Amino acid sequence: MNVAVYSRKILKHEVSFFKRFFTHLEQINWNAIIEKDFYEQLKAQVGLKEGYDTFNSHSDFVSGIDIAISIGGDGTFLKCVSYVRSSGVPILGVNTGRLGFLADTNTGDFELTLNRLLKQDYVYQQRSLIRVETEENIFGDQNLALNELAVHKKDTASMITVEAYLGGEYLNSYWADGLLVGTPTGSTAYSLSCGGPIISPGCNVHFLTPIAAHNLNVRPVIVPDHIPITLKAVGRDRNFLLTLDSLSKPVKNGTEITLYKSDFNINVIKFKENDFFKIIREKMLWGIDQRNE
């Protein structure tokens, strides 16, 4: 079994975990393929030996990797997705962060988790992505997002206006600090803090959620994901900021941005007992009330 392992930063209290993690991989005869920068940290901080294979591009996932393991928070998981892309390699998230909706296990259960992977005691949950196109192709081949695209103001306190079109038909002009367009996975990310809806994975929809809308009667909208969405931001500034998950680029005033559903999904490893709404209840403390005891 070839396992791609990715994390972004090793904290002092995590050193012992990573030592045990890679020791256990060796004991079950799994071949770890480690992200290049992370491998350098492991050698310096954990004392991991030389000789491991590495990856540093999504092209390394074309063949030969069976599972990708992301160790960290949701941001780490999103970066891991940028490596996996259309390869079809399933991703398991091991949470070391605080909230984290994408990871399905934690560092304390990792030995049990790896044993369940050995027994194939899990299911795949498919998560859709959005693909972004602009005239100047500003994101290059990194034009995919699992969570959302955000159009927001860059260097001013003034509002911006984002014109939105659905399948070429005018939808609305959002007077706000910005606008989010995202997937069901992204509904529990930035959009959630902006009052957007929680959307169950597997729903074939996109959402549009304004960021601090000036018009109080403007509300988040859910639309079918097979219809392209076109955005155009205008305002006093010459530039705006366009953020695709964690990747940000400046765009010129009036730039046209078109969003499509990607033609492939990401396979996320989930254990049967970790139902989406069970996770929501636990993470958001739903039902925590003395009246329910």
From TrEMBL:
GO CC annotation terms, alphabetical: cytoplasm
Main location: cytoplasm
Keyword presence, Transferase: yes
Location in the cell: Cytoplasm
Keyword field contains NAD: yes
Cofactor(s), by name: a divalent metal cation
Residues annotated as binding NAD(+): 74-75, 79, 147-148, 177, 188-193, 212
Gene Ontology biological process terms, A to Z: NAD+ metabolic process; NADP+ biosynthetic process
Catalytic activity entry: NAD(+) + ATP = ADP + NADP(+) + H(+)
EC nos: 2.7.1.23
InterPro entries documented for this protein: ATP-NAD_kinase_N, ATP-NAD_kinase_PpnK-typ_C, NAD/diacylglycerol_kinase_sf, NADK
Role: Involved in the regulation of the intracellular balance of NAD and NADP, and is a key enzyme in the biosynthesis of NADP. Catalyzes specifically the phosphorylation on 2'-hydroxyl of the adenosine moiety of NAD to yield NADP.
Protein name: NAD kinase
Native organism: Brumimicrobium salinarum
Gene: nadK
